[in-house]
């Protein structure tokens, strides 16, 4: 299997721009989770000091994962301390529930 998972955590206000950029480049599927956390910057106005962000997960062909990660970084960047991060991890297997088969490279698109 030649698939990797791109996980990005970024400011929720950048979500629309990130979604539009991914769709323009042929990425059709991603999963979103609202998350809260603390990194180098914390919200001193909030009682628990946690920042609201979005976590996005995208499965991609290995040869496209770095380009997708860079696209997210470029699109989500606003030069603020609390912008988040992007990571890429290998996927050993990925199974589609709807047709009970393993995913293949051809299931994932990206147009540079």
UniProtKB/TrEMBL annotation:
One GO BP annotation of this record: regulation of nitrogen utilization
GO MF annotation terms: ATP binding; enzyme regulator activity
GO-annotated cellular components: cytosol
Entry-linked Pfam families: P-II (PF00543)
SUPFAM superfamilies with a match to the protein in the record: GlnB-like
Protein name: Nitrogen regulatory protein PII
Species of provenance: hydrothermal vent metagenome
Record lineage: unclassified sequences, metagenomes, ecological metagenomes
